[in-house]
């Protein structure tokens, strides 16, 4: 699919078919946030103040992890302005919701709202996009990582989901810090360090064993849940020259009760079409997308999307394909030959001689082969 359209093109065609209330803030989402806030507070107090059996602490940790993740999904919605519009209240509520994940609202809006949404799946401008062959050639670390056997790398890649949101948030702080004006840099740092100060203070108060159940294990669980969604949002889609959500985004399907608990976070293509709309109305947006552009829309069950991620590499080749550099195995992306039901690859060696000399040299350097 090469005839791309910007997200506004699609939104303009769908918007007239949506009710006016779909474009208004939905304050009732805060009731769900309050329920999760009470669960988190009660769970942490129970672990901290009671001498419970480790099995009970483990069960509470699981509930806390799910609640941390759900609060992050709500914080994402709040900071898009779909719950409340008043800026100071939006940022305050967003900060509270993101507190367990230790991400500040000002950094999040810069990284996610103003950069990722504007430049989705752009090779150089999207901070969440995975690297291309050109970027692999320039990075000695990446070249070393991609010489690790694929099955081993896939295992560690999925294991790293338990820390990846936290690690990427810290990386984004370093990436965007200088983009803020001097007067805002102090706020950004405070919003980053205050949550960590709270959680490290809790460690000092209750000790390592209880802190593991009250915060660290829940954080790992929350990371895994959040990254389970985020890793499927775009990583099976191509890099694109135009911010076309039907080309660069994937919506996953989960049981209805999971959508309720996770504030419809699974509707990701819909979110990129209408980021300032409450996710409450995304099922309605999906209906219209599937009526108007059924062949362009990408959706699949969460389990199938994760399985496809496990079986494919994360380096882009010619923007529309994925490549395993060492073996020269090339896979399609969604809309470009990827069939999640039967994932197959072609051999780059078969057509490498047809590449321009510069491209041959890039592939040799990235893969470590001496001759093509």
Automatic annotation (TrEMBL):
Coiled coil: none
Plastid listed as a keyword: no
Transmembrane stretches, start-end: 30-49, 55-76, 150-174, 186-206, 212-230
One Pfam short name: FA_desaturase
Keyword Transmembrane: yes
Residue ranges of domain Fatty acid desaturase in the record: 56-300
Top-level taxon of origin: Bacteria
Keyword terms, alphabetized: Membrane, Transmembrane, Transmembrane helix
GO biological process, one term: lipid biosynthetic process
One CC-aspect GO term: membrane
Gene Ontology MF terms in the entry: oxidoreductase activity, acting on paired donors, with oxidation of a pair of donors resulting in the reduction of molecular oxygen to two molecules of water
InterPro entries per record: FA_desaturase_dom (IPR005804), Fatty_acid_desaturase (IPR012171)
Name recorded for this polypeptide: Fatty acid desaturase
Record organism: Geobacillus thermodenitrificans (strain NG80-2)
């Amino acid at each position: 699919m090469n005839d791309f359209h910007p997200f506004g093109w699609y939104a303009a065609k769908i918007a007239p078919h949506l009710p006016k209330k779909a474009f208004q803030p939905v304050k009732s989402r805060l009731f769900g946030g309050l329920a999760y806030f009470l669960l988190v507070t009660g769970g942490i107090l129970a672990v901290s103040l009671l001498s419970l059996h480790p099995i009970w602490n483990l069960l509470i940790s699981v509930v806390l992890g799910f609640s941390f993740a759900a609060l992050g999904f709500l914080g994402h919605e709040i900071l898009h302005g779909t719950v409340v519009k008043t800026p100071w209240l939006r940022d305050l509520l967003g900060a509270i919701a993101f507190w367990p994940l230790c991400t500040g609202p000002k950094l999040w809006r810069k990284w996610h709202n103003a950069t990722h949404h504007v430049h989705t799946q752009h090779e150089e401008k999207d901070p969440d996009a995975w690297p291309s062959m050109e970027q692999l050639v320039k990075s000695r670390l990446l070249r070393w990582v991609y010489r690790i056997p694929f099955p081993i790398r896939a295992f560690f890649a999925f294991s790293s989901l338990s820390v990846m949101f936290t690690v990427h948030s810290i990386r984004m702080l370093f990436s965007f810090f200088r983009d803020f004006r001097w007067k805002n840099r102090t706020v950004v740092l405070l919003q980053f360090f205050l949550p960590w100060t709270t959680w490290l203070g809790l460690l000092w108060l209750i000790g390592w064993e209880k802190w593991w159940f009250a915060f660290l294990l829940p954080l790992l669980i929350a990371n895994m849940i959040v990254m389970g969604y985020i890793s499927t949002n775009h990583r099976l889609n191509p890099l694109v020259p135009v911010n076309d959500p039907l080309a660069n985004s994937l919506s996953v399907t989960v049981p209805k009760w999971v959508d309720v608990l996770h504030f419809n976070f699974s509707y990701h293509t819909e979110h990129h079409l209408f980021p300032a709309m409450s996710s409450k109305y995304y099922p309605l947006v999906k209906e219209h997308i599937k009526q108007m552009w059924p062949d362009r829309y990408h959706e699949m069950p969460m389990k199938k999307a994760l399985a496809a991620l496990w079986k494919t590499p994360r380096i882009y080749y010619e923007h529309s394909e994925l490549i395993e550099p060492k073996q020269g195995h090339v896979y399609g992306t969604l809309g470009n030959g990827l069939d999640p039901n039967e994932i197959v690859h072609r051999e780059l060696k078969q057509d490498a001689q047809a590449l321009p000399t510069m491209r041959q040299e890039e592939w040799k350097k990235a893969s470590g082969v001496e001759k093509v």
